[in-house]
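This protein record is not my work; I was only asked to verify it. Would you go through it and say whether the fold makes sense for this chain? Here is the record exactly as it was handed to me.
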Amino acid sequence: MRTMISGRDVDLFLSGAEVQSINLLVVGGGITGFGTARFLADLSRGKAHITLTDAGDLSGKEEELRGLEELGVSLELGGHREKTFLESDLIIVSPGVPLYIDEIAGAKESGVRVMGELELAFRFIEAPILAVTGTNGKTTTTALLGDILINSGIKAIVGGNIGDPLVNLVEGSKEADYVVAEVSSFQLEAIETFRPRMGALLNISPDHLDRYPGYEEYIEAKMDLFKNQSDTDYALLNGDDPIVTARAEGLKARKIFFSREKEIPGGVYLKGGKIVCEAGGKPYTYDPAKYFLTGVHNIENIMAAVGSAAVVGAVGERVNEAIADFRPAPHRLERFLTSRGVTFYDDSKATNVGAALKSIESFTGGIHLIMGGVDKGGSYAPLASAVGERVKALYLIGEARGKIEGELGGLVTTVVADGMEEAVSLIGERVKPGDVVLLAPGCSSFDMYDNYKQRGEDFKRIVKKHFGEEV
């Protein structure tokens, strides 16, 4: 086996210094892996040996793969080679790849340095990072925060788990005031020094329990957002989330809380239906009734965004303008049709129980709710109260339908369907004017669809076929 270079040489490379004969391995294709490999090729200026490995099927990505080969990147596709992992000096892991796979675990045991793309990018990004995480709402909050800063005259670029991976933003960060980053628990698993100037934690509820040994490990991954912060940094926290507040006391950063349920001096809170933000010093008030973002979860997302913006000096009317102009992304409690007095909402992005709960809580009642997909290992019991109070009928599809029926089926009229087409057809037989039809699956989509977007588009297509054109 080849003699590995020293840990000091790896650190020198990670500081931008030229290091001869370093072996770099990127694990995982896709947008993050491709971006990481290109970044490393540019950084090493031909002095490193770079390999990209992916165990899956990358058909359809031939052009990107040819581009990497032209940069001198070696490709190992269709499976991982243990020897390549063991002979690497530094392994960069894409967030979709678990750190516990045999090849990565074996390399770590042999002393190979392993880190994630988030950590790599952080070492080269020059602007302060405003990072957003949470089980639900990350994408909306991150995109909204970026819009608020830009509309307020602050140079901000947005990426991470949304859009461009952070390695693609390194060059742009030289001219930016801030980098706004959506950060997932998968990315936070593999950090060392990553330290955001401001870290926002929106909420924590059971998710991805098919990847983590237990709920506690998932929680700890989320809390790693704050582990390298000091008292010169900021932590924006959900004051209504008991898991978040229980762990807040141990944080070193300056804490700012947001809440729908209580007034918090110096924080962001709901009062008389209006959002009051005191995080920037002088209070400013924002009216959610005037925005396109609807639902209780989006009130929290707005509070988190305005609180984060206030930390860096963006407050007042230009913030209000940015929120008023902001449109929610598709498949996130998207109202797309009203027909026969019935309103239809696509919340296919509600891929876990916490998101489904917020979705249900956005309506007072009369809900025909479609749930189901791939179970993620948690319980559906947290939905029981909301389902019993607000759901008129429950329509179950996918692999998880039996489990959901066992936990929630006795609460309301429950129908088990073979798929989306049958579920919508059955809703058509039962729905009345004034009712709401809601797709909030509480599960991932991979049993029947490639992703949540495809599931949402299929739902909308079938609804329009049965109920009429979009309005």
